[in-house]
Amino acid sequence: MGRFAFLLAAGISLFGALIHFVAPLLGPEWYAFLQAPPKVVASAQAGGLLAPTGAMAIGVLMLVCALYALAGAGLLRWLPFAQMVQGTVAAVCLLRGLLVLPYLYRFPERVWTFDAMASAVWFAAGLGFLVGILQSTNARRAVIAAPGDASGA
Questions:
Q1: CA nearest neighbour of 114 among 52, 28, 18, 30
Q2: Separation of alpha carbons 13 and 27, rounded Å
Q3: Which contacts of 137-141 are long-range, i.e. CB under 8 A and separated by 24 or more positions?
């Protein structure tokens, strides 16, 4: 279960990275579709550096999230501060997923279907990281406890 959860989080993160990496190639309409702030869309329309630089930076961050999820799934051998980064990513994704709720309550007319879906997807990524962390922690505890139980002293 933990491996699948991490793989789900990795898939979501990789997809997020991909759509940010292709944004500069697809133009201002793509930034607008992805609900980028008006300043970013204007930058894309004007051919400025804010839009592509921001998209690349976010894409790299999402790629790093995917790498840590793949490490959690056991597909990568070692990454520095893995547990700390995975926990931080889980918290950020869960908070990003929940961010839509106050807006739905206070300003329902401002929340588009895209906003709700994006929040649900990032909440799922956060759950993937969280479940993966919890499952791998339980598995480590079982491995640590097993040698003492098996010695039969």
A1: 30
A2: 22
A3: 138/2, 139/2
How many residues can be counted in the chain? 153
- Unique residue bearing structure tokens 């491996």: 3
Structure tokens at 82: 């893995």
Give the per-residue SS3 of 9-66. HHHHHHHHHHHHHHHHHHCHHHHHHCCCCHHHHHHHHHCCCHHHHHHHHHHHHHHHHH
Global pTM reads 0.86
40 vs 16, 43, 66, 91, 137, CA distance in Å?
17, 5, 25, 26, 41
Give CA 68 to chain center in angstroms: 10
What is the end-to-end Cα distance of the chain in Å, rounded?
A: 33
H helix count then E strand count, the chain: 7, 0
Amino acid at 69: A
The dihedrals phi and psi of 126, each to the nearest 5 degrees, come to -60, -40
Model pLDDT for residues 122-143, shown as the tens digit of each residue = 999 999 999 999 998 877 777 7
CA 19 to chain centre: 13
